[in-house]
Amino acid sequence: MNNLIYMDNAATTMVLPEVLDAMMPFYKDFYGNPSGSYSFAEISKNAINDSRKIIADTLNTMPHNIYFTNGGTESDNWALKSIADSYGKNYGHIITSKIEHHAILNTCNYLKKKNYDITYIDVDEFGIINLKQLENSIRNDTILISVMFANNETGVIQPIKEIGEIAKKHNIIFHTDAVAAYGHININVDEYNIDLLSVSGHKFHAPKGVGFLYVRDGIDITSFIHGGDQENKLRAGTENVAGIVGMGTACKIAYTDSDSKRNKELILREKLITRILKELPFSRLNGSLTNRLSSNVNFSFQFIESPSLMELLNEQGICASGGSACTSAITEPSHVLSAMGLPDDIASGALRLTFNSYTTEAEIDYICEMIIKDVNKLREMSSLYTFFIS
Ligand SMILES: *Cc1c(COP(=O)(O)O)cnc(C)c1O
Prior knowledge:
This protein is of the alpha/beta class. It has helices at about 15-25, 25-30, 40-60, 70-90, 100-115, 130-135, 160-170, 240-255, 260-280, 305-315, 335-340, 345, 360-380, 385-390, and strands at about 5, 65-70, 95, 115-120, 140-145, 175, 195-200, 210-215, 285, 295-300, 320, 350-355. It folds into 2 domains: about 5-15 and about 260-390, Alpha-Beta Complex (Aspartate Aminotransferase, domain 1), CATH 3.90.1150; about 15-255, Type I PLP-dependent aspartate aminotransferase-like (Major domain) (Aspartate Aminotransferase, domain 2, 3-Layer(aba) Sandwich), CATH 3.40.640. The chain is about 40% helix and about 15% strand. Strand 3 (about 95), helix 5 (about 100-115) and strand 4 form a beta-alpha-beta unit. The structure holds pyridoxal-5'-phosphate.
Protein backbone atom coordinates (compact mmCIF):
# COMPACT_ATOMS: atom_id res chain seq x y z
CA MET A 1 0.00 0.00 0.00
CA ASN A 2 1.13 3.55 -0.76
CA ASN A 3 1.72 6.02 2.04
CA LEU A 4 0.53 3.66 4.70
CA ILE A 5 1.19 5.01 8.17
CA TYR A 6 0.99 2.12 10.55
CA MET A 7 0.26 3.16 14.13
CA ASP A 8 -1.27 -0.05 15.42
CA ASN A 9 1.74 -2.03 16.59
CA ALA A 10 -0.15 -3.16 19.71
CA ALA A 11 -2.50 -5.10 17.40
CA THR A 12 0.31 -6.69 15.40
CA THR A 13 3.67 -5.80 13.88
CA MET A 14 5.49 -6.12 10.60
CA VAL A 15 7.72 -9.18 10.25
CA LEU A 16 11.22 -7.71 10.04
CA PRO A 17 13.21 -8.59 6.90
CA GLU A 18 15.97 -10.16 9.06
CA VAL A 19 13.32 -12.33 10.73
CA LEU A 20 11.92 -13.49 7.40
CA ASP A 21 15.44 -14.20 6.13
CA ALA A 22 16.12 -16.42 9.13
CA MET A 23 12.86 -18.28 8.59
CA MET A 24 13.00 -18.96 4.86
CA PRO A 25 15.53 -21.84 4.92
CA PHE A 26 13.19 -23.74 7.25
CA TYR A 27 10.44 -23.62 4.65
CA LYS A 28 12.55 -24.24 1.58
CA ASP A 29 15.54 -26.35 2.55
CA PHE A 30 15.36 -27.70 6.09
CA TYR A 31 11.79 -28.90 6.24
CA GLY A 32 12.49 -32.01 8.30
CA ASN A 33 10.20 -32.92 11.18
CA PRO A 34 12.16 -32.18 14.38
CA SER A 35 11.04 -35.53 15.80
CA GLY A 36 12.79 -37.49 13.02
CA SER A 37 15.80 -39.64 13.88
CA TYR A 38 18.06 -38.62 10.95
CA SER A 39 20.52 -35.71 10.68
CA PHE A 40 18.18 -33.75 8.38
CA ALA A 41 15.60 -33.65 11.22
CA GLU A 42 18.32 -32.71 13.68
CA ILE A 43 18.75 -29.40 11.82
CA SER A 44 15.14 -28.45 12.63
CA LYS A 45 15.45 -29.68 16.19
CA ASN A 46 18.65 -27.72 16.79
CA ALA A 47 17.10 -24.57 15.32
CA ILE A 48 14.21 -24.85 17.79
CA ASN A 49 16.58 -25.31 20.69
CA ASP A 50 18.71 -22.35 19.59
CA SER A 51 15.58 -20.18 19.74
CA ARG A 52 14.67 -21.62 23.12
CA LYS A 53 18.09 -20.61 24.43
CA ILE A 54 17.90 -17.07 23.01
CA ILE A 55 14.46 -16.58 24.58
CA ALA A 56 15.44 -18.09 27.94
CA ASP A 57 18.43 -15.73 28.14
CA THR A 58 16.19 -12.67 27.69
CA LEU A 59 14.18 -13.70 30.76
CA ASN A 60 17.13 -14.85 32.86
CA THR A 61 15.91 -18.44 32.88
CA MET A 62 16.81 -21.85 31.40
CA PRO A 63 15.74 -23.22 27.99
CA HIS A 64 13.69 -26.05 29.53
CA ASN A 65 11.41 -23.46 31.14
CA ILE A 66 10.23 -22.22 27.72
CA TYR A 67 7.30 -23.99 26.03
CA PHE A 68 6.41 -22.96 22.49
CA THR A 69 2.74 -22.30 21.74
CA ASN A 70 0.80 -20.74 18.87
CA GLY A 71 0.57 -17.32 20.54
CA GLY A 72 -0.61 -15.19 23.41
CA THR A 73 -4.16 -16.47 23.63
CA GLU A 74 -3.04 -20.08 23.82
CA SER A 75 -0.36 -19.29 26.42
CA ASP A 76 -2.92 -17.45 28.58
CA ASN A 77 -5.48 -20.26 28.27
CA TRP A 78 -2.89 -22.90 29.05
CA ALA A 79 -1.53 -21.08 32.10
CA LEU A 80 -4.92 -20.43 33.72
CA LYS A 81 -6.67 -23.68 32.88
CA SER A 82 -3.73 -25.87 33.78
CA ILE A 83 -3.05 -24.16 37.12
CA ALA A 84 -6.78 -24.43 37.89
CA ASP A 85 -6.59 -28.10 36.97
CA SER A 86 -3.41 -28.92 38.92
CA TYR A 87 -3.95 -26.85 42.05
CA GLY A 88 -7.70 -26.27 42.19
CA LYS A 89 -9.02 -29.80 41.96
CA ASN A 90 -12.28 -28.50 40.48
CA TYR A 91 -12.50 -25.60 42.88
CA GLY A 92 -10.33 -22.64 43.76
CA HIS A 93 -10.03 -18.87 43.89
CA ILE A 94 -8.25 -16.84 41.20
CA ILE A 95 -7.30 -13.17 41.46
CA THR A 96 -6.95 -11.11 38.29
CA SER A 97 -7.59 -7.50 37.24
CA LYS A 98 -10.39 -5.62 35.51
CA ILE A 99 -8.09 -4.50 32.70
CA GLU A 100 -6.85 -7.85 31.39
CA HIS A 101 -6.96 -8.85 27.72
CA HIS A 102 -9.97 -10.94 26.70
CA ALA A 103 -7.68 -13.97 26.45
CA ILE A 104 -7.57 -13.80 30.28
CA LEU A 105 -11.04 -12.40 30.98
CA ASN A 106 -12.88 -14.96 28.85
CA THR A 107 -10.75 -17.81 30.20
CA CYS A 108 -11.77 -16.64 33.68
CA ASN A 109 -15.42 -16.62 32.56
CA TYR A 110 -14.98 -20.23 31.45
CA LEU A 111 -13.38 -21.20 34.77
CA LYS A 112 -16.15 -19.43 36.67
CA LYS A 113 -18.66 -21.72 34.96
CA LYS A 114 -16.47 -24.64 36.08
CA ASN A 115 -17.00 -23.59 39.70
CA TYR A 116 -13.86 -21.47 40.22
CA ASP A 117 -14.26 -18.18 42.05
CA ILE A 118 -12.73 -15.10 40.39
CA THR A 119 -11.89 -11.72 41.93
CA TYR A 120 -11.26 -8.78 39.58
CA ILE A 121 -9.03 -6.11 41.12
CA ASP A 122 -9.66 -2.41 40.42
CA VAL A 123 -7.24 0.05 38.86
CA ASP A 124 -6.86 3.74 39.72
CA GLU A 125 -7.41 6.70 37.36
CA PHE A 126 -3.91 6.15 35.95
CA GLY A 127 -4.67 2.53 35.08
CA ILE A 128 -2.52 1.01 37.83
CA ILE A 129 -3.73 -1.94 39.87
CA ASN A 130 -4.71 -1.49 43.54
CA LEU A 131 -2.08 -3.50 45.43
CA LYS A 132 -3.80 -3.23 48.83
CA GLN A 133 -7.02 -4.60 47.41
CA LEU A 134 -5.06 -7.38 45.70
CA GLU A 135 -3.36 -8.47 48.93
CA ASN A 136 -6.62 -8.19 50.91
CA SER A 137 -8.37 -10.42 48.38
CA ILE A 138 -6.10 -13.37 49.10
CA ARG A 139 -7.92 -16.27 50.76
CA ASN A 140 -7.00 -19.74 51.97
CA ASP A 141 -8.24 -21.22 48.72
CA THR A 142 -6.49 -18.73 46.38
CA ILE A 143 -4.54 -20.75 43.82
CA LEU A 144 -3.42 -18.10 41.33
CA ILE A 145 -2.80 -14.40 40.77
CA SER A 146 -2.80 -13.36 37.10
CA VAL A 147 -2.04 -9.72 36.31
CA MET A 148 -0.80 -8.41 32.97
CA PHE A 149 2.69 -6.89 32.73
CA ALA A 150 1.66 -3.94 30.56
CA ASN A 151 -1.79 -3.09 29.31
CA ASN A 152 -2.33 -3.42 25.57
CA GLU A 153 -4.66 -0.41 25.32
CA THR A 154 -2.98 2.19 27.51
CA GLY A 155 0.56 0.80 27.64
CA VAL A 156 0.46 1.24 31.43
CA ILE A 157 3.06 -0.94 33.15
CA GLN A 158 1.83 -2.68 36.28
CA PRO A 159 3.80 -2.99 39.55
CA ILE A 160 4.83 -6.56 38.72
CA LYS A 161 7.69 -6.70 41.21
CA GLU A 162 5.35 -5.75 44.08
CA ILE A 163 2.72 -8.26 42.93
CA GLY A 164 5.43 -10.93 42.74
CA GLU A 165 6.44 -10.14 46.32
CA ILE A 166 2.85 -10.40 47.54
CA ALA A 167 2.39 -13.72 45.71
CA LYS A 168 5.62 -15.10 47.16
CA LYS A 169 4.80 -13.95 50.71
CA HIS A 170 1.45 -15.78 50.57
CA ASN A 171 2.83 -18.74 48.61
CA ILE A 172 0.52 -18.24 45.63
CA ILE A 173 1.37 -18.93 41.99
CA PHE A 174 1.83 -15.78 39.91
CA HIS A 175 1.14 -15.61 36.16
CA THR A 176 1.60 -12.53 34.02
CA ASP A 177 0.34 -11.88 30.49
CA ALA A 178 3.46 -10.17 29.16
CA VAL A 179 2.28 -10.08 25.54
CA ALA A 180 2.22 -6.27 25.38
CA ALA A 181 5.42 -5.86 27.41
CA TYR A 182 7.86 -8.44 26.08
CA GLY A 183 10.35 -7.02 23.62
CA HIS A 184 9.74 -3.53 25.01
CA ILE A 185 11.00 -3.85 28.58
CA ASN A 186 13.54 -6.01 30.35
CA ILE A 187 11.92 -8.84 32.24
CA ASN A 188 13.77 -10.92 34.82
CA VAL A 189 11.46 -13.71 35.99
CA ASP A 190 13.49 -14.38 39.16
CA GLU A 191 13.72 -10.77 40.24
CA TYR A 192 9.95 -10.38 39.75
CA ASN A 193 8.98 -13.78 41.24
CA ILE A 194 7.05 -14.66 38.09
CA ASP A 195 5.96 -18.32 37.92
CA LEU A 196 4.32 -18.29 34.49
CA LEU A 197 4.56 -15.72 31.69
CA SER A 198 2.77 -15.49 28.32
CA VAL A 199 4.32 -14.02 25.17
CA SER A 200 3.24 -13.71 21.53
CA GLY A 201 5.66 -13.40 18.60
CA HIS A 202 3.58 -11.19 16.32
CA LYS A 203 3.65 -8.32 18.83
CA PHE A 204 7.40 -7.89 18.42
CA HIS A 205 8.09 -8.40 14.71
CA ALA A 206 7.93 -12.19 14.56
CA PRO A 207 5.16 -13.83 12.50
CA LYS A 208 1.62 -14.55 13.67
CA GLY A 209 0.89 -17.99 15.08
CA VAL A 210 3.86 -18.44 17.38
CA GLY A 211 4.42 -17.61 21.04
CA PHE A 212 5.58 -19.19 24.27
CA LEU A 213 4.76 -19.83 27.88
CA TYR A 214 7.48 -19.58 30.52
CA VAL A 215 6.95 -22.00 33.42
CA ARG A 216 9.12 -21.94 36.57
CA ASP A 217 10.68 -25.20 37.80
CA GLY A 218 8.44 -26.89 40.33
CA ILE A 219 5.20 -25.47 38.95
CA ASP A 220 2.96 -28.36 38.04
CA ILE A 221 1.29 -27.72 34.68
CA THR A 222 -0.92 -30.15 32.83
CA SER A 223 -0.92 -30.82 29.11
CA PHE A 224 -3.16 -28.47 27.16
CA ILE A 225 -2.96 -30.17 23.78
CA HIS A 226 -2.70 -33.98 23.88
CA GLY A 227 -0.84 -36.02 21.31
CA GLY A 228 2.84 -36.67 20.69
CA ASP A 229 5.84 -36.07 22.91
CA GLN A 230 6.74 -32.55 21.76
CA GLU A 231 7.56 -29.81 24.30
CA ASN A 232 8.37 -32.22 27.09
CA LYS A 233 5.08 -34.05 26.44
CA LEU A 234 3.12 -31.01 27.54
CA ARG A 235 2.23 -29.34 24.24
CA ALA A 236 1.78 -31.89 21.51
CA GLY A 237 1.86 -31.27 17.75
CA THR A 238 4.63 -30.87 15.19
CA GLU A 239 6.48 -27.66 15.97
CA ASN A 240 6.11 -24.46 13.93
CA VAL A 241 9.85 -24.59 13.17
CA ALA A 242 10.11 -21.53 10.92
CA GLY A 243 7.88 -19.49 13.25
CA ILE A 244 9.97 -20.47 16.28
CA VAL A 245 13.18 -19.56 14.42
CA GLY A 246 11.60 -16.23 13.45
CA MET A 247 10.60 -15.55 17.05
CA GLY A 248 14.12 -16.30 18.30
CA THR A 249 15.55 -13.88 15.74
CA ALA A 250 12.96 -11.21 16.64
CA CYS A 251 13.87 -11.66 20.32
CA LYS A 252 17.52 -11.10 19.66
CA ILE A 253 16.75 -7.95 17.65
CA ALA A 254 14.27 -6.62 20.25
CA TYR A 255 16.81 -6.91 23.05
CA THR A 256 19.74 -5.47 21.07
CA ASP A 257 20.29 -1.70 21.49
CA SER A 258 17.00 -1.61 23.35
CA ASP A 259 17.93 1.52 25.32
CA SER A 260 18.49 3.58 22.20
CA LYS A 261 15.25 2.26 20.66
CA ARG A 262 13.32 3.19 23.81
CA ASN A 263 14.88 6.66 23.84
CA LYS A 264 13.90 7.21 20.25
CA GLU A 265 10.33 6.16 20.99
CA LEU A 266 10.22 8.42 24.05
CA ILE A 267 11.12 11.43 21.89
CA LEU A 268 8.36 10.56 19.41
CA ARG A 269 5.86 9.99 22.23
CA GLU A 270 6.70 13.31 23.89
CA LYS A 271 6.29 15.15 20.61
CA LEU A 272 2.94 13.50 19.90
CA ILE A 273 1.47 14.08 23.35
CA THR A 274 2.68 17.66 23.67
CA ARG A 275 1.37 18.77 20.31
CA ILE A 276 -2.03 17.09 20.53
CA LEU A 277 -2.81 18.23 24.08
CA LYS A 278 -1.63 21.75 23.25
CA GLU A 279 -3.54 22.17 20.01
CA LEU A 280 -6.73 20.27 20.80
CA PRO A 281 -8.76 21.48 23.78
CA PHE A 282 -11.03 18.97 25.58
CA SER A 283 -8.52 16.19 25.02
CA ARG A 284 -6.64 14.06 27.52
CA LEU A 285 -4.01 11.37 27.73
CA ASN A 286 -5.43 8.14 29.16
CA GLY A 287 -3.22 6.29 31.63
CA SER A 288 -0.06 7.10 33.53
CA LEU A 289 2.54 9.12 31.63
CA THR A 290 5.47 7.72 33.59
CA ASN A 291 4.62 4.01 34.05
CA ARG A 292 4.00 3.46 30.39
CA LEU A 293 5.45 1.71 27.35
CA SER A 294 7.52 4.18 25.34
CA SER A 295 5.62 3.30 22.15
CA ASN A 296 2.03 3.84 23.33
CA VAL A 297 -0.22 6.88 23.34
CA ASN A 298 -3.92 6.73 24.22
CA PHE A 299 -5.98 9.91 23.93
CA SER A 300 -9.61 10.76 24.57
CA PHE A 301 -11.27 13.54 22.61
CA GLN A 302 -14.50 14.88 24.03
CA PHE A 303 -17.50 15.42 21.72
CA ILE A 304 -16.42 12.83 19.15
CA GLU A 305 -16.86 9.07 18.68
CA SER A 306 -13.85 6.84 17.95
CA PRO A 307 -15.34 5.05 14.90
CA SER A 308 -15.89 8.37 13.05
CA LEU A 309 -12.34 9.48 13.78
CA MET A 310 -10.97 6.09 12.71
CA GLU A 311 -12.84 6.42 9.41
CA LEU A 312 -11.28 9.80 8.62
CA LEU A 313 -7.80 8.61 9.62
CA ASN A 314 -8.24 5.54 7.45
CA GLU A 315 -8.91 7.77 4.43
CA GLN A 316 -5.61 9.51 5.20
CA GLY A 317 -3.75 6.17 5.22
CA ILE A 318 -3.38 6.01 9.00
CA CYS A 319 -3.94 2.71 10.82
CA ALA A 320 -4.92 3.37 14.43
CA SER A 321 -7.21 1.86 17.00
CA GLY A 322 -10.12 3.13 19.05
CA GLY A 323 -9.72 0.44 21.64
CA SER A 324 -8.39 -3.08 21.47
CA ALA A 325 -8.71 -4.83 18.09
CA CYS A 326 -10.69 -7.71 19.54
CA THR A 327 -13.55 -5.46 20.61
CA SER A 328 -13.44 -2.73 17.98
CA ALA A 329 -16.53 -4.13 16.23
CA ILE A 330 -18.56 -3.24 19.29
CA THR A 331 -19.21 0.43 19.97
CA GLU A 332 -19.19 -0.06 23.74
CA PRO A 333 -16.45 1.91 25.48
CA SER A 334 -13.30 -0.02 26.36
CA HIS A 335 -13.46 -2.06 29.56
CA VAL A 336 -9.98 -0.77 30.38
CA LEU A 337 -10.91 2.91 30.17
CA SER A 338 -14.17 2.26 32.06
CA ALA A 339 -12.22 0.50 34.83
CA MET A 340 -10.08 3.67 35.10
CA GLY A 341 -13.26 5.59 35.89
CA LEU A 342 -13.64 7.38 32.57
CA PRO A 343 -17.27 8.28 31.89
CA ASP A 344 -18.73 6.68 28.73
CA ASP A 345 -18.80 9.91 26.72
CA ILE A 346 -15.05 10.39 27.23
CA ALA A 347 -14.07 6.72 26.92
CA SER A 348 -15.95 6.45 23.61
CA GLY A 349 -13.78 9.16 22.03
CA ALA A 350 -10.54 7.23 22.53
CA LEU A 351 -7.66 6.88 20.08
CA ARG A 352 -4.74 4.50 20.56
CA LEU A 353 -1.56 5.07 18.56
CA THR A 354 1.17 2.47 18.94
CA PHE A 355 4.35 3.06 17.00
CA ASN A 356 7.91 1.69 17.12
CA SER A 357 11.52 2.74 16.89
CA TYR A 358 11.32 2.69 13.09
CA THR A 359 8.59 5.37 13.11
CA THR A 360 9.88 8.73 11.84
CA GLU A 361 9.36 12.26 13.15
CA ALA A 362 7.83 13.17 9.78
CA GLU A 363 5.19 10.48 10.30
CA ILE A 364 4.43 11.83 13.78
CA ASP A 365 4.09 15.36 12.34
CA TYR A 366 1.70 14.13 9.67
CA ILE A 367 -0.38 12.18 12.16
CA CYS A 368 -0.65 15.19 14.49
CA GLU A 369 -1.86 17.38 11.63
CA MET A 370 -4.45 14.84 10.55
CA ILE A 371 -5.75 14.21 14.08
CA ILE A 372 -6.10 17.93 14.74
CA LYS A 373 -7.88 18.47 11.42
CA ASP A 374 -10.18 15.45 11.84
CA VAL A 375 -11.15 16.08 15.45
CA ASN A 376 -11.95 19.72 14.68
CA LYS A 377 -14.03 18.66 11.67
CA LEU A 378 -16.01 16.10 13.70
CA ARG A 379 -16.59 18.58 16.49
CA GLU A 380 -17.92 21.18 14.06
CA MET A 381 -20.49 18.58 13.01
CA SER A 382 -21.44 17.84 16.63
CA SER A 383 -24.48 19.69 17.93
CA LEU A 384 -23.37 18.91 21.47
CA TYR A 385 -20.04 20.63 20.86
CA THR A 386 -21.49 23.69 19.11
CA PHE A 387 -24.01 24.02 21.96
CA PHE A 388 -21.25 23.61 24.54
CA ILE A 389 -18.92 26.29 23.18
CA SER A 390 -21.63 28.84 22.34
C1 LIG B 1 -2.35 -9.53 21.58
C2 LIG B 1 -2.52 -9.87 23.01
C3 LIG B 1 -2.92 -11.16 23.40
C4 LIG B 1 -3.28 -12.23 22.39
O1 LIG B 1 -2.16 -12.70 21.71
P1 LIG B 1 -2.36 -13.51 20.31
O2 LIG B 1 -0.99 -13.99 19.97
O3 LIG B 1 -2.88 -12.54 19.33
O4 LIG B 1 -3.30 -14.62 20.58
C5 LIG B 1 -3.02 -11.43 24.75
N1 LIG B 1 -2.73 -10.49 25.68
C6 LIG B 1 -2.33 -9.25 25.34
C7 LIG B 1 -1.98 -8.27 26.42
C8 LIG B 1 -2.22 -8.89 24.01
O5 LIG B 1 -1.84 -7.65 23.68
